[in-house]
Amino acid sequence: MTYILIFLAGGLGSLLRYVIGLALPSSFFPWTTLGINVAGSFAIGLFGGLGARFGWSDNLNLALTVGLCGGFTTFSTFSKEALSLAAAGRWGVCSLYVIGSVVLGIAAAALAFLSAR
User: Fold this and answer.
1) Helix, strand, or coil here: 22?
2) Mean pLDDT of the chain
3) What is d(CA 49, CA 84) in angstroms, rounded to the nearest whole number?
4) Which listed residue, of 15, 31, 81, 84, carries a Cα 20 to 30 Å from 57's Cα?
């Protein structure tokens, strides 16, 4: 049952990421991927905090974190976009993207986790 829940939630997360990407195409800066990854980091922190607070089942926790958040966020797209910025010689934008993604992602996860507990 756990595998099915993770599979279904992961598909939903991937579909959400795709639809958001269509609605908000990136411009000179990969805002869409940054926003998706920060929102996913916030969601995983929120789910972790709420799961700990309310004693969610392992199945629900895995479906929401590994499935939904794992399908929604995208490290591979982040890596591709950072590499493309570097290859184009846009080192300042690339650095801002990489540092901003890491710092904002961790901050969002921590804020949500602490707020939910």
Assistant:
1) helix
2) 96
3) 35
4) 15
